[in-house]
Design a protein that fits this description.
Elements (H helix, E strand, L loop, with lengths): L2 E4 L2 E8 L6 E6 L13 H6 L2 E6 L18 H15 L4 E6 L1 H12 L4 E7 L4 H10 L2 H4 L1 H5 L5 H7 L2 H7 L4 H10 L5 H10 L1 H4 L11 E6 L7 H6 L8 E6 L5 H4 L1 H14 L2
Parallel strand pairs: 3-4, 3-5, 5-6, 6-7, 7-8
Antiparallel strand pairs: 1-2, 2-4
Helix pairs in contact: 2-3, 8-9
Length: 273
């Protein structure tokens, strides 16, 4: 399977690995990535007998770029993940999400727990912990760009201009930074990616419940975007088995720490076997 559809939108997906192995892992990327963010993670998962599903998410797949801001609310992106599992014939999966993919993974685990065997969140804290951190820490200063991205048109020019250099300066390897920057030049790509931020007002109208599925949260202590306050607060919003893993790393965990990420995911998979 290389595509799936939901509500008239067509999503690109990388479906690979054993079909008769030990389970399925759904991996969700963030901004301004695409599914290739996990290219160095999936081989270890395949070696362990796991099938992997890695979509280019809403706004990133050329056939799935709706224009309405509300179309990018987390309730919608979580339903995209459910639709992918349905199309792949997977009843339950181990879900891994990074950055905005992590936010989607938290909502998926909270509202569609019956579809998850486990959750591994990379970088992104639970949404309620993030909301708390905005008023109790320096997180609002770290996240200044979220308010800027609410503006029309101007953020598109900023996002595309010199994006490769800014990603490299933020710790992303050059090959990934080059690929992501080139994709943002495609018609509608920058708007589709930025609309994840523009969907935040709709997302936050409905609080995300606590998560009961077995959860591992992985955070890099040098993350420029997501601070310690929200990272440590996240445990208050998980009522199931929980593990917090702090890495000596920055924000781009799938690209810069693929072996450590794969190990953490496999540890989580084995813990619930």
């Amino acid at each position: 399977m290389d595509t799936f559809e939901r509500d008239g939108l067509r999503f690109d997906v990388r479906d690979s690995g054993p079909r008769d192995g030990t389970g399925t892992v759904l991996l969700l990327h963030g901004f301004p990535q695409d599914g290739t963010a996990f290219d160095d993670v999936v081989p270890a998962l395949h070696e362990a007998g796991l099938r992997t599903l890695v979509p280019d998410q809403r706004g990133y797949s050329p056939g799935a770029r709706p224009s309405a801001r509300s179309a990018y609310a987390m309730a919608e992106t979580a339903l995209d993940a459910v639709a992918l599992l349905d199309a792949a014939g997977v009843r339950r999966a181990h879900v891994v999400g990074h950055d905005w993919g992590g936010a989607t993974a938290w909502v998926l685990a909270a509202r569609h727990a019956e579809r998850l065997t486990s959750l591994t969140a990379l970088s992104t804290p639970h949404p309620a912990a993030m909301a708390w951190a905005f008023t109790h820490s320096s997180q609002v200063a770290r996240s200044w760009y979220m308010a800027f991205f609410q503006l029309p048109r101007l953020p598109e020019r900023y996002a595309v201009r010199d994006l490769r250099r800014r990603l490299v300066d933020g710790g992303l390897p050059v090959d990934h930074a080059t690929r992501y920057a080139e994709r943002m030049q495609e018609p509608g790509a920058a708007t589709g990616a930025l609309n994840w931020y523009r969907g935040m007002p709709t997302s936050f109208r409905t609080p995300t419940p606590a998560v009961a599925v077995p959860t591992t949260y992985v955070w890099g202590r040098d993350d420029f975007a997501l601070g310690r306050a929200a990272a440590e607060r996240t445990r208050r919003h998980v009522v199931g088995p929980y593990r917090f893993v702090e890495l000596d790393a920055g924000h781009w965990l799938p690209e810069t720490c693929p072996e450590q990420v794969a190990t953490v995911v496999l540890d989580q998979v084995r813990a619930v076997a």
